[in-house]
Amino acid sequence: MRRIRRAIVSVTDKAGVAEFVKELVGFGVEIISTGGTAELLKKAGVNVIPISSYTGFPEMLDGRLKTLHPKIHGGILGIRDNPSHQKEMETNGILPIDMVVVNLYAFEDAIARGCALEEAIENIDIGGPTMIRASAKNHNDVAVVVDPADYGSIIKEMRDKKGMLSKATRFSLAKKVFQLTARYDAAISNYLGSVPDLPEVEVASRFPETYTVQFEKVQDLRYGENPHQAAAFYRRRTKAGACLADAKKLQGKELSYNNILDLNAALSIAAEFHEPAAVIIKHNNPCGAAASKNGILAAYRLAYECDKTSAFGGIVGFNREVPKEAAEELNKIFLEAVIAPGFEEAALKAFSAKKNLRVIEAGEIKPEALSFGPEDFDIKRVSGGVLLQTLDIESASDLKTVTKRGPDDKELEDLLFAWNVCKHAKSNAIILAKAGRTIGIGAGQMSRIDSTRIAVMKANDAGLIVKGSVLASDAFFPFRDNVDLAAEQGVTAIIQPGGSIRDEEVIAAANERGIAMVFTGIRHFRH
To answer: Is 137 one of the annotated active-site residues of the chain?
Structure first.
């Protein structure tokens, strides 16, 4: 146990700090503080020793120099049970500092705003990381607090232990420090690594020479893709809007590795649509999707009709709050999980009849919230390393009609719907759609013509009429055979990236068949 007699407090995040410090003062703790934190504490009625009074040296250099002083770091680093340390501290007038309450300049927030390089540099904290690292190193004697979420548990323990904190608590707090500084330094390294050597030159590459990323564990999982594989779920940073790592499980069994992959796919596709939408995922592919002005119950029914067989044991995602009627409809089949921005109380009551069903509340769904941000990447592991790529967030905003006949308004609406779904299906991907719903999906095949055949087969097996539908392809057609097969089934319009050496042959086939075709200029391979 170590009694807390003296603390230094210097925080950027001032939420709850005044209340926390008042509690410390109640235990007889002497408070040393800096700048804005000291002013806040004084206004709250706390007797504070300004850092400059304590060190005998003024804060200077526009606040760059405050705490880098032997009276601070000697008080932190001195080992209490080491006689020579204690003698040197006494000789030099250094008092022990038993607690350091510090959080760092918000560098990550600054660069997320798109600030200039000069502002980013000023948001690199020096004194804060130095203090907390020193405190964590000497955690046997010093408690270091970097997370306001810990204020409550610390005060509770000090109450229970008469102003003292256990070694276990100090060690736990120290671990948080090095996790924080690792993340903080990684953010700085990644940002500066993408800036060219001459600051006046615009950023030359999104990819830094060394890329470092840190995640914090959300939970251990039952197993990985297969039962013999161990797995855990980690989050990056908390942010506003829907984010799977911050979603709440309201009921059901523990999530599995595969559940999380499929929930992410469901959330990502649902976020593509402005109208009420439903998507059903199986093995990370959509097996049905629909958008309907009549609400999510209507959208779900349309999505389900696309492939009732594959929907069994699937995961359903919505972009609107789930009402009771939709929950009752979902209960009619076996599902692994449901994810949505929220659920009516009556819907949750209905779901409670299916105790194993995982019900996940994601919060407000915004497509931009599903990625970390423009400075982050899609990461794929390979043997001995990783691949980084920017996120596939491009939309089909500049369509080019390449056939004699262009799509009419109804066809264009369905083409864009199909394109949004196609973007999330495994390559080679073919989507057949009609009236804001998928009617056939072919995905994950080695040849594009096989994906087209499967999409047609799925539609026919479901009793859905292909005639009058549109087709989306995630990549160009290498031959005209896909167009011919689509035409035989009555497809009236096609959306595809274009870019094949046989584009003219494919366009000619569409013209022969009276099919409207548009090029997006964007490919959506998904391996």
So the answer is: yes
* Amino acid at the residue 324: K
Per residue in 484-513, pLDDT tens? 999 999 999 999 999 999 999 999 999 999
Cα–Cα distance for residue pair 275/298, rounded to 1 Å: 12
- R_g (Cα) of the chain, nearest Å: 29
Tokens 């390979």, residue located: 382
43 is catalytic: no
In 383-480 the beta strands, taken as DSSP E runs, fall at: 385-389, 400-401, 430-433, 438-442, 470-473
| Helix 503-513 with 481-488: angle, nearest 10 deg | 20
- Please, what are the domains in the chain? 2-193 (3.40.50.1380), 242-368 (3.40.140.20), 400-519 (3.40.140.20)
Catalytic residue among 22, 42, 85, 137: 137
Please, what's the largest Cα pairwise distance for the chain?
96
Give the C-alpha separation, 349 to 337, whole Å.
16
Catalytic option among 22, 283, 410, 426: 283
Report how far apart, in Å, the C-alpha atoms of 443 and of each of 123, 422, 457, 526 are: 47, 9, 12, 10
Segment 58-85, tens digit of pLDDT: 777 766 777 778 888 888 888 888 988 9
